[in-house]
Amino acid sequence: MTRDKVSIHGAWASRWVFILAATGSAVGLGNIWKFPYMTGMYGGGAFVIMYLVCIFLVGLPIMLAETLIGRRGRQSPVNSLKSLALEAGASPKWSWAALMGMVAALLILSFYSVVAGWSLDYIISMGRGTFDGISAEGAGAAFGALTSDPWRLTLWHSLFMLLTGFVIARGVVAGLERGLRIMMPLLFVLLLVLLGYSMTTGHFMQGFHFLFDFQPDRLLDGVLAAMGHAFFTLSVGVGSIMVYGAYMPRQASIGATVLTVGVLDTLVALTAGLALFPIVFAGGLEPSAGPGLMFVTLPVAFGNIAFGQLMGTVFFILVLIAAWTSSISMLEPAVAYLVERTQRSRAFVTSVLALLCWLVGMGTVLSFNVAADAKFFVFAEDGFRLFQWGAEGGRNFFDSIDYLTSRILLPLGGLAFVLFAGWVLQRETVRDELALRHPRLFPWVYWAMRVVAPLGVLIVFVAELVK
Ligand code: TRP
């Protein structure tokens, strides 16, 4: 009794294209830039373990929920949730979760584009040999020179936003599918080349131990960060995966497909770590450098090893491609929604939204230089302030958006989606859509969606608030 709706936006040619698209969305700056530096900050192996637990117990059930809601609804996340809620006799207000997700995705895109823009700058300076023989201070200064120059940041941010809008405006098949078919294989090849290279540095085992040695005392340091990151890296909680699910063919098993995506994303993150840390150690650098890890320590490493100029250029091209296949998935939920709602053309809607994200992104651009002292979420001795110029603590605009999305909006969105699939949709609907290869596993998977994942999010969320 499958009633099949069709999406007005188009459909992937096969389940493999969904895997490409969802993996393209999942694999991004989160894997190559954030994961290694967070692992470095939160003590290596201990963080990796918490991250894996969060991915498999919480992230994957939410991804299942999103994919099946999308495929069942065949519309933008907002309208899919609305129509499925009405069909199930529940409140159409469930769609507010998707509305919030849509806004969160646009907020993420605003800063993602700025950071992705750095990789454009680095492709050029790497290729030109700017980093040849550079010292750690030199690389720090080069990164500082980039982030303190609002014009340079604006240039690259604008270019990256144009690249993103270009693919989205061309549509699901001519834009996304075609782009992904070229970019994803390239991404994997580049990553393997880099891994092969790091094995020749002589520090491979040191990197390996750093990533996988277990330090029980640091286990709890990074749980909150690990949960936030599990959402971010899998692209769940905002409707990116849901909108891709809407373009997925009917016959495919969601269970097997989503597992493939989760495993690929995790493998890429671990491979990126295995490729990066040996290079960091080979350059005699600190793994705990924070967000600058990729942009400061790596150029030093690449600038001082054989074939570094070539490998460094390859590396930043890899970063660019990974970021590009992710950024398009942040824009798609809102574009699909506005096309449905306003009946305007994709190109028009894309231009308006990209411009909006670009504008918000300018806040991030300025937060690295002229507006570095504009602080939000300030917890001072005499109380909490939302905004204060020049406050001691607090977060600048970039950190605030990152915090607001990763730690608050993504978990809330993910919680709503998984609760909707687990408690609002009928059990049979969920079972049919998932179409697990091993039906005996269904009760376990269903239980993970109804209980384990929501509890996981809630616990971490409350811990975050009382911390
Ligand atoms: N997962 C991507 C990364 O790791 C980023 C991303 C794409 C994302 N779409 C998203 C993050 C939606 C949160 C929500 O870089």
Automatic annotation (TrEMBL):
NCBIfam families named in the record: Na_transp (NF037979)
Coiled-coil ranges per UniProt: none
Subcellular location: Membrane
Topology of the protein relative to the lipid bilayer: Multi-pass membrane protein
Statement: the UniProt record of this protein carries the keyword Aminoacyl-tRNA synthetase: no
Pfam families named in the record: SNF
Protein name: Transporter
PROSITE patterns: NA_NEUROTRAN_SYMP_1 (PS00610), NA_NEUROTRAN_SYMP_3 (PS50267)
UniProt keyword terms in alphabetical order: Membrane, Symport, Transmembrane, Transmembrane helix, Transport
Source species taxonomy: Bacteria, Pseudomonadati, Pseudomonadota, Gammaproteobacteria, Pseudomonadales
Transmembrane portions of the chain: 12-33, 45-65, 96-120, 155-173, 185-205, 225-247, 254-281, 301-326, 347-368, 408-425, 445-466
Matching InterPro entries: Na/ntran_symport, SNS_sf, YocR/YhdH-like
Family of this protein: Belongs to the sodium:neurotransmitter symporter (SNF) (TC 2.A.22) family.
